[in-house]
């Protein structure tokens, strides 16, 4: 079967939309990216897995063990999504114009998100062109009780 034929059904796997955000208080570096491949994989300890392509924003800081936040995008406010979808100047903080604050574990919490999960990487695997980060959940925050998480369906499993 052709790769393009296999990709049609794979693209129909629903996922959420998230902004993964990380900062390094020592160097004041901040970074983030739009993610859709995130899933809870363990109850005890509570662990999530997220896929990130090496070289993407936030990759180096997450791999260095810096705490990060998974900001769950809600249907109540999508205004900041385009900023991360189209990219931003790597010489500037991606959060300079987006209301945010530091969480209790220094994760970058976006005030407009539905919720946020603060994590720390515990291990990783590179099964293909993306690396899977396994991260322990350290804290979670709900900012908007009423909104629903956005769900994303791709046109094809061959790309974003």
Explain this structure.
- With 160 residues, the chain is mostly beta strands.
- Helices cover 12% and strands 39% of the residues.
- It contains three helices and eleven strands.
- The radius of gyration is 15 Å and the shape is globular.
- The model has no long low-confidence stretch (mean pLDDT 92).
Could you write a compact summary of the structure shown?
With 160 residues, this protein is mainly β.
Q: What is the secondary structure topology, with strand pairs?
A:
Blueprint: H1 3-10, E1 15-16, E2 18-24, E3 29-35, E4 38-42, E5 47-52, H2 59-63, E6 68-72, H3 81-86, E7 100-102, E8 108-110, E9 115-125, E10 131-142, E11 151-152
Antiparallel strand pairs: 1-11, 2-3, 2-6, 4-5, 5-10, 6-9, 7-8, 9-10
Count helical runs: 3
Report how far apart the termini are.
Answer: 21 Å
Number of strands: 11
CATH superfamily: Electron Transport, Fmn-binding Protein, Chain A
Question: How many separate structural domains?
Answer: 1
CATH topology, by name, is: Pnp Oxidase, Chain A
**Which structural class fits the helix and strand makeup?**
mainly beta
- Which architecture would the CATH scheme give at its second level? Roll
Quote the average pLDDT. 92
Report the β-strand fraction as a percent range: 35-45%
Regions with little confidence, pLDDT below 50 for 5+ residues: none
Shape designation: globular
Strand arrangement across the biggest beta sheet: 3-2-6-9-10-5-4
- For the record, the CATH class is Mainly Beta
